[in-house]
Amino acid sequence: MFAVFGFASDHILQVPFIAFYRKEYVESCLVINDLWKVYQWDEKWCHLQQRKKRLLELMKRMLNYQMENDNAAGMRIVTEQDMNEVHGVQTVEGLMDVSTKFQLYYGPEVPKMIDWEKIQNLSEDDPEREAAEMRFRAATRTDKYMACFSIFFCILEEKVDLCIQNGLSGMASRFGLTPLQFAENLDWKRHDIVQEDEEPLKAAEQYVCQSFPTSEAVLAGAIHVVAKQLSREPKVRELLRLRYRLRLKISVCPTKKGREEIDENHKLWPRR
Description:
mainly alpha; 2 domains; 14 helices; extended
């Protein structure tokens, strides 16, 4: 099996050539259709690894930006746990989870990071400027699904960005559990909820500002931030998907056309 990967990836040999001229390296149980499946899944796996590498590179650049730039002092710091989550990704869904989490916390800061990098490392006439910009585009390139919904995501993030810019993430952190702790409690209760001494509306008075002029508005904004954080936590998304797949049942019935075409010889006849 591993020989097939090597021939396809390293030696760039096509499946028919491997099947007919490298038979001695291929298990006898694998026919040419199996080799095509191996080839296709290996291509998907390599693509996934490339995207993980780009996201990790972007995270490291963001961490460097946070460490070296005083204006980024109030941001959530990229942690080793964040990078370990990317290293542990095994599926496209998992990569989407960590990508959306990164977008929530650091999406608005990426353009600022680029400008800062240009000021620090490149002058206007530097010949490496174009190469650096190409590396960034490669590091931030997303798949077709994300490209189609990028505008939609930006609209959804406007409110949470406003909340974070006005310091409501501080209020959100007082809800008793971090998003990761909440996710771990979905399996079994590992973390106790930290109780605040102040009433919610009383605590919210500390965060009243022009954009959120009342305690009620502050509390609503903080709830929105917490909801967003939970919805973007990779472990929460993974557990919810798993539970849906294990417990969800869908009832369907054939249409008029289906009733006419599904006869005893049709593969769906037992489920009609």
